[in-house]
Amino acid sequence: MEPIDDILNTEIYNGTALSDVLTLDFLASVLGNVVTGVLILVAGLLIASWLKRRITGISARSSRLDDTLFAFLGQIARYIVMIFTVLILLNNLGVQTTSIIAALGAAGLAVGLALQGTLSNVAAGVMIIVFRPIKLGDFVTVAGQSGTVKDITLNTIELASIGNTQVIIPNSEVWGNVIENYSVYKTRRAEWTFGVGYGANLKTAEEVILSTIMADPRSKSEPAPFIQVNNLNDSSVDFLVRVWVESADYFQYQADMKRKVKEALDTNDVPIPFPTRTLHIESDDDSSAGKLAAE
């Protein structure tokens, strides 16, 4: 027992022996602090998770509320609760939290200066989430990339391209560039240019083009469709056609009408132009100029 007695009688601080510290009262106070700390931590985690769920659940109650915005607010609320939980826990253990907060502030300033680019992405992410120029599920073109928005975080935007590849764009490039959002409005105006030969009856050609397009159930009669001769090219007379359609049908509709109009023009014997060139040949024996037309 002598070695144990020697250890217990060892002076650890300012004349205080280890045996003076390891008393029943001391152990009870330590155990009480540990239990209290665990309860504080568990309570903080439960409150943070509950608050996050409550905030994110608000957007589910109405289709007018943006899921991305409330998911962001729920995450911020969770972080705030966890920060206060850690501060209360440290204070319960006797740690002076004032000095820790001051040290974290100084460290945060240093980290902020070192991570200016990352923080600019975070700031842009906050602006995107708050002002919502784009939302999950929107089809957009931004920073030269087109695709469907799959995720919006504080640092990046994730797009699924038309070819279903993942495209990650930093938020600073999104917020600082022109954003073309194809999903905001329910309808779009499709536009085509159809050329017919100079020998075609323009009234017949116009009727065939317009009736073919408007026969499609996706075509909208309001606003009224637009068609007129727009250009006289070297070998064709060009009709400019504009018709409104649902945004969801736009791309397939525009492609389908090109084929249908071509088939309708062929069926009604409306000539479609081919590039032609006229050659003037002067003969050495004859002063008159011959003409040869070739494709």
3D architecture notes:
The protein has 295 residues and is of the alpha+beta class. The chain folds into three domains: 2-114, Helix Hairpins (Orthogonal Bundle), CATH 1.10.287; 132-181, SH3 type barrels (Roll); 187-267, Alpha-Beta Plaits (2-Layer Sandwich), CATH 3.30.70.100. The protein has helices at 2-8, 18-21, 24-58, 67-92, 97-114, 116-131, 171-175, 202-214, 250-267, and strands at 11-13, 16-17, 139-142, 145-152, 156-160, 166-170, 179-181, 187-196, 226-232, 237-246, 277-282, 289-294. A five-stranded antiparallel β-sheet has the order 6-5-4-3-7. Strands 8-10-9 form a three-stranded antiparallel β-sheet, with helices on one face. A two-stranded antiparallel ribbon has the order 1-2. α3 (24-58) packs antiparallel against α4. It is elongated.
Can you summarize this structure?
It is built from 9 helices and 12 strands. The protein has helices spanning 2-8, 18-21, 24-58, 67-92, 97-114, 116-131, 171-175, 202-214, 250-267, and strands spanning 11-13, 16-17, 139-142, 145-152, 156-160, 166-170, 179-181, 187-196, 226-232, 237-246, 277-282, 289-294. By secondary structure, it is an alpha+beta fold.
Number of helices: 9
Average pLDDT over all residues: 80
Instruction: Report strand order across the widest sheet.
Output: 6-5-4-3-7
Count of DSSP strands: 12
> How many angstroms does the end-to-end distance come to?
115 Å
- Contiguous low-pLDDT stretches (5 residues minimum) are 287-295
The CATH topology of the largest domain is Helix Hairpins
Biggest beta sheet attributes: 5 strands, antiparallel
Q: Which of globular, elongated, flat, extended, rod-shaped describes the shape? A: elongated
* SS-based class: alpha+beta
Estimate what percentage of residues fall within beta strands.
Answer: 15-25%
The first-level CATH class of the largest domain is given as Mainly Alpha
Number of domain units:
3
Write the element-wise H/E pattern from the N-terminal end onward: HEEHHHHHEEEEHEEHEEHEE
What is the C-alpha radius of gyration, as a whole number of Å? 37 Å
CATH architecture of the largest domain: Orthogonal Bundle
Helix content: 40-55%
